[in-house]
Design a protein that fits this description.
By secondary structure, the chain is an alpha+beta fold. The chain is built from two helices and two strands, in the order H-E-E-H.
Length: 77
């Protein structure tokens, strides 16, 4: 038997978006997963552990998750 489950948001309410669905900050995510998420609607995992679907592209000067930035800067080139 096939069953349809309701879509659930795994993000805690209000932690990473503003009221108009614009992210408060952007996260570092593997490049190869960004397009897949944007097209297929799959979730990505940021360096900080945040799990979400890609819905917006950052603009120059957009705020960046401090934890993602710290992890990225500590990674070897």
């Amino acid at each position: 038997m096939t069953q349809t489950l309701p879509d659930t948001d795994t993000r805690p309410e209000g932690t990473d978006t503003t009221g108009d669905d614009t992210p408060k900050m952007f996260h570092y995510v593997r490049k190869d997963k960004i397009a897949e998420s944007a097209v297929m609607g799959t979730h990505v995992v940021a360096l900080c552990g945040e799990v979400f679907p890609v819905t917006k592209s950052p603009k120059p000067g957009s705020p960046v998750c401090p934890e993602c930035k710290r992890i990225f800067e500590a990674m070897p080139q």
